[in-house]
Design a protein that fits this description.
Distance between the termini: 16 Å
CATH topology: Lipocalin
Radius of gyration: 14 Å
Number of helices: 1
CATH class: Mainly Beta
Number of domains: 1
CATH architecture: Beta Barrel
Largest sheet: 8 strands, antiparallel, barrel
Order of helices and strands: HEEEEEEEE
Length: 125
């Protein structure tokens, strides 16, 4: 997830969002929430590398590189579009992401411009 956030936000730091934030609250049992690894299946035994781990909650994404707080979310069946403010040691960045639930239980992640994509594997919910 660190790579997701780092790559996405470096690209998106030059992006301006013209839509006002109108976040709707997501239920705590929403399909996106839980713990994940990026681009490799989660072992779930505590041996997954920290740099590949991420936790997604109703309010934010937490990863080793930083925290992204959802400012606006739009849910469409098996897809969630999110506008987020991310806090990193180098400073804050704005980003737009799309998460798509796949039939095999993985989640596709892509930034707004499609320049970075990853597969998220669930560790737990």
């Amino acid at each position: 997830m660190i790579r997701i956030v780092q790559a996405s936000l470096v690209i998106l730091m030059f992006t301006t969002v013209n839509e006002p934030a109108s976040s709707k609250s997501l239920n705590a049992d929403f399909w996106l929430f839980g713990e994940f690894t990026q681009n490799v299946p989660c072992r779930g035994d505590g041996s997954d590398p920290a740099e590949l781990k991420a936790r997604i909650s109703p309010d934010q994404i937490e990863a080793e590189a930083g925290v992204c707080t959802f400012l606006d979310t739009r849910s469409e069946a098996d897809r969630l579009k999110a506008h987020a403010l991310c806090q990193f040691p180098a400073g804050p960045l704005m980003g737009d992401f799309t998460f798509t639930k796949k039939p095999d239980g993985t989640i596709d992640f892509v930034d707004r411009d499609g320049t970075y994509a990853a597969i998220l594997y669930r560790c737990s919910k």
